[in-house]
Design goal:
single chain; about 60 residues; mainly alpha; about 0% strand
Length: about 60
């Protein structure tokens, strides 16, 4: 997957989290969200760690708390 396409999936990941939290819905696992947006959890995990220094589950945990 190219960098531009991966960045688009990163944007979709953020939108998905925002939509679910705004609706008051419980957040699914990182892997489930990746499945919804059609990206490999490993690829997105690497990008999240590179950009934010956290894993996907750590990021979701921060939204859950």
């Amino acid at each position: 997957m190219g960098h531009r396409r991966l960045m688009e999936k990163y944007r979709l990941f953020n939108e998905c989290i925002e939509d679910l939290t705004a609706a008051g819905s419980p957040l699914p696992s990182f892997e489930e969200i990746c499945g919804r947006i059609g990206v490999s959890p490993r690829l997105l995990e690497n990008l999240l760690f590179e950009e934010l220094g956290v894993s996907g589950e750590e990021l979701l945990s921060s939204y859950r708390n």
